[in-house]
Amino acid sequence: MEILTRLRIKGAGLAIDDFGTGASSMQQLKRIPFTELKIDRAFVAGAPTDEEARAMLESSIALAKKLDLTIVAEGVETQEEWDLIERLGVEIVQGYFIAKPMPADDLLAWARANGDLSP
């Protein structure tokens, strides 16, 4: 824990990945000085039409905002998910809707071709 705190003091960011599933927990948010919360795909998928999934997504976003964390929505794969995430105020997304994983060498060309990422 001391090492993580020293990293934060030096300006390094710490992300909690796959929030809401597996080993990530509310207790970790309290103990570890995270700067970013990455919401797991499980809470993004279906959220536009499933009230329970949407409630979990909205709660995770509200918690992250309350803790002043940067929010990343993982696994955005459809226009509907993109629209919902945008309406909920999440500014950072990852997922196949934007692009599939690519080699670093291809990133610059992709970014030039897709400068305006508004769908």
Notable characteristics:
119 residues; globular; 6 helices; alpha/beta
Beta strand %: 5-15%
The CATH architecture can be named as Alpha-Beta Barrel
- Any idea how many domains? 1
- Give a short account of the largest sheet: 4 strands, parallel
Gyration radius from CA atoms, angstroms: 16 Å
Provide the CATH superfamily.
Answer: EAL domain
What general form does the structure show? globular
Overview of this protein structure:
The chain is an alpha/beta fold and 119 residues long. The protein has a single domain (2-113), classed as TIM Barrel. Helices cover 45% and strands 13% of the residues. It contains 6 helices and 4 strands; from the N terminus they run H-E-H-E-H-H-E-H-E-H. It has helices spanning 2-9, 26-31, 41-44, 51-66, 79-87, 104-113, and strands at 15-19, 36-39, 70-73, 92-93. Strands 1-2-3-4 form a 4-stranded parallel sheet. Helix 5 links the parallel strand 3 (70-73) and strand 4 (92-93). It is globular and about 40 Å long. The N and C termini lie far apart (41 Å).
Tell me the layout of helices and strands.
Elements: H1 2-9, E1 15-19, H2 26-31, E2 36-39, H3 41-44, H4 51-66, E3 70-73, H5 79-87, E4 92-93, H6 104-113
Parallel strand pairs: 1-2, 2-3, 3-4
Summarize this, please?
This protein is of the alpha/beta class.
